[in-house]
Amino acid sequence: MGTLTSAKPILAIAAALMLSACGGGFGAGGGTNAGSLPPGHPESTTGTGSSIWDIFKPSDAGTNVKVNKYIWNASLDVLNFLPVESVDPFSGVITTGYGRPPGGGSAYRATILVSDPALEARSLNVALQTRNGPVSTATARAVEDAILARARQLRVADARF
């Protein structure tokens, strides 16, 4: 029993040291000089401000689609002769398989990236290729122009309603 009573003060001191090492405190600064911490440190006021507790905050990732719906639909309209292999509206990527355009001889496949919610040319990137390799930049630009023209038509038609 003598060893148990002498161990209590040691356990109490060890617990106090462990709690004091956690820092934090109840004040605004938490006992640390937040301005002297490196950027990105959880307690830094100049960093990102993220901490381990951010995992418990509600996340809006995946709830808002960040692509332009007119460019998205126009891409599917203009390249409707290509079989769609995969679509991801959250990242804005449409991947197609090989297909022949009406009246064309070569088979093409495309990867379309709609990267912005704005109806602008910078929001669209089209990568076309044939079985022999990538197509010329003029051909890819002509397809992008056709998609953007169709997107404008869809927007105008949507504004009428």
Describe the overall structure.
34% of the residues lie in helices and 16% in strands. It is built from three helices and five strands. Strands 1-2-3-4-5 form a five-stranded antiparallel beta sheet, covered by helices on one side. The protein is α+β, with helices and mostly antiparallel strands and 161 residues long. The model is unreliable at 25-34 (pLDDT under 50). It folds into two domains: 2-56, no CATH class; 69-160, Alpha-D-Glucose-1,6-Bisphosphate, Chain A, domain 4 (2-Layer Sandwich). The chain starts with a helix and ends with a helix. The protein has helices at 2-22, 69-78, 137-160; strands at 84-88, 93-96, 108-114, 124-130, 133-134.
Write the layout of secondary structure elements.
Elements (H helix, E strand, L loop, with lengths): L1 H21 L46 H10 L5 E5 L4 E4 L11 E7 L9 E7 L2 E2 L2 H24 L1
Antiparallel strand pairs: 1-2, 2-3, 3-4, 4-5
Helix pairs in contact: 2-3
Features:
161 residues, Alpha-D-Glucose-1,6-Bisphosphate, Chain A, domain 4, 5 strands, alpha+beta, elongated, 2 domains
Label the structural class.
alpha+beta
Question: What general form does the structure show?
Answer: elongated
Give the N-to-C terminal Cα separation: 87 Å
Spell the H/E element sequence: HHEEEEEH
CATH fold annotation of the largest domain: Alpha-D-Glucose-1,6-Bisphosphate, Chain A, domain 4
What's the tally of helices? 3
Give the class-level CATH name of the largest domain.
Alpha Beta
Portion of residues in beta strands equals 15-25%
Mean pLDDT: 77
Domain count, please report it. 2
Q: Fraction of residues in helices?
A: 25-40%
- Poorly predicted parts: 25-34
Largest sheet: 5 strands, antiparallel
| CATH A-level architecture of the largest domain | 2-Layer Sandwich
Radius of gyration: 29 Å
Strand order of the largest sheet: 1-2-3-4-5
**Number of DSSP strand runs:** 5
